[in-house]
């Protein structure tokens, strides 16, 4: 399972993920702490996210969506899974790699699960 997740990250992640030292160790720890969500379909892994939760805020460390599955509401599904695992989280925070300023953004979680 770990090897499939690592391959998925290397194939679909950004340049930041390629060749990341200790990637396997990070994934194993997040799976053990239940802060890693992996979504599958009949073809294999569709998406992966890693979280850290501090108080009422879930910090999304990574969201990686299969190149052929993007723009289909998968982020919303990942947030829903994360909220079920950590119902105390009222906010999510993350950086958008695609944005030039890369500043941390914080949103009410209900924006993703009710809308």
Short description:
By secondary structure, the protein is of the alpha+beta class. It has a single domain (2-113), classed as Aminopeptidase. 32% of the residues lie in helices and 30% in strands.
Write the layout of secondary structure elements.
Blueprint: H1 2-12, H2 23-32, E1 36-41, E2 44-54, E3 57-65, H3 74-85, E4 91-94, E5 105-108, H4 110-113
Parallel strand pairs: 3-4
Antiparallel strand pairs: 1-2, 2-3, 4-5
Give your account of this protein's structure.
With 115 residues, the protein is of the alpha+beta class. The protein has one domain: 3-Layer(aba) Sandwich (Aminopeptidase). It has helices at residues 2-12, 23-32, 74-85, 110-113; strands at residues 36-41, 44-54, 57-65, 91-94, 105-108. It has a 5-stranded mixed β-sheet, sandwiched between helices. Helix 1 (2-12) crosses helix 2. The mean pLDDT is 85.
Q: H/E order of the elements?
A: HHEEEHEEH
Query: Do you know the CATH architecture?
Result: 3-Layer(aba) Sandwich
Silhouette: globular
CATH class: Alpha Beta
Within CATH, the superfamily carries the name: Gcn5-related N-acetyltransferase (GNAT)
Query: What's the number of domains?
Result: 1
- Percentage beta strand: 25-35%
Q: Percent of residues in helical segments?
A: 25-40%
């Amino acid at each position: 399972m770990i090897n499939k997740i690592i391959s998925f990250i290397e194939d679909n992640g950004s340049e930041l993920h390629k060749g990341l030292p200790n990637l396997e160790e990070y994934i194993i720890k997040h799976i053990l702490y239940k802060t890693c969500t992996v979504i599958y379909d009949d073809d294999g892994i569709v998406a992966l996210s890693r979280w850290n939760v501090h108080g009422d805020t879930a910090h999304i460390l990574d969201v990686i969506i299969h190149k052929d599955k993007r723009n289909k509401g998968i982020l919303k599904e990942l947030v829903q899974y994360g909220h079920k695992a950590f119902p105390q989280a009222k906010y999510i925070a993350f950086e958008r790699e695609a944005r030039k300023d890369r500043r941390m953004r914080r949103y009410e979680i209900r924006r993703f699960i009710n809308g």
